[in-house]
User: What shape does this take?
Amino acid sequence: MSSARPDGHPHVDTSQPLVMSLPARPTREEVARLCAELAAAPPGEARCLVDAGAHGLAAVDALARLALTARRHGHRLTFQGAGPELTALLRLTGLDEVL
Assistant: This one.
């Protein structure tokens, strides 16, 4: 007699959102690691806590890459904590919908 395997990853709690942190000055390696973590997680809620000091094009690029990865893998990603400088830059680039 065999039993059916449950859906999803065997050791992943999908009842809680995946929580990630974006540092003030994200490096390419850090963004790649966060995207890989997001891609490996089962589809669901994901939250990215943005350091209040994050600003500039590196932060915009990181948020855009995370948003694209989330969309590709079926996640509902939200960002929290972006400071006014980053928020203004996202509005200027037309990417403010990611917040």
Observations:
- Residues 1-6 have pLDDT under 50 and may be disordered.
- The CA atoms of residues 22 and 50 lie 5 Å apart.
- DSSP finds three helices and three strands in the chain.
- The beta strands are 18-22, 45-50, 76-80.
